[in-house]
Amino acid sequence: MKFLSFLAQYISNPRSVGAILPSSSYLADKMVKSINFEQARYILEYGPGTGVFTEKLLQNRNPNTAIILIESNEEFYKILVQKYKEVDNLFIHNGSAEKVDWYLEKCGIPYVDYVISGLPFASLPKAVSHRILFKTSKVLRKNGKFVTFQYSNVMKAYIEQFFSKVDVSIEIRNVPPAMVLCCSLEEEKMEVTYAI
């Protein structure tokens, strides 16, 4: 059922879904590897889809840790709401990660420790990617991490404009194989021109 839902959404929204299959559990493990679950107070996820990464976050989190999901696809949003309706400390929003600051303010969340992203930046309009990455760099706490995956190296240099350090690892046990980019702002937050 999950596969059919994902395939249907890919066919109708290929630019926003970005892949024909949900991410593998191996990729999910690598995406959450850098998270200090004991210390994290707020974890944010962009584009959770059917919840592959979300499951790992919920399995490993401290019960007091708040998790915020932002999903732009309405069908995936409905699946997530139904799937996690009994889960405490979980906020699910249907909308664009471009409004991340607004969603956090709405939840009374002052910053985030980690951002996990399933967004296909290579297929999003450049202005949308810019707004999301810019705002992400602003809502992350000092030494927080932004972790995303892409299917090629094409976006690495672009993402490096927003983060002072980008570590790359490969997960071949995924269809297609994926590059995981673990990004941080180790130095004082850089000023990035905010272009609409």
TrEMBL record:
Matching CDD domains, A to Z?
A: AdoMet_MTases
Which keywords annotate this record? Methyltransferase, RNA-binding, S-adenosyl-L-methionine, Transferase
One MF term in GO for this entry? rRNA (adenine-N6,N6-)-dimethyltransferase activity
Top-rank lineage group of the source organism: Bacteria
Can you tell me where the transmembrane regions are? none
Against Pfam families, the record matches this protein to:
RrnaAD
Q: Which organism is it from?
A: Fictibacillus phosphorivorans
Q: What is this protein called?
A: SAM-dependent methyltransferase
**Keyword 4Fe-4S (UniProt):** no
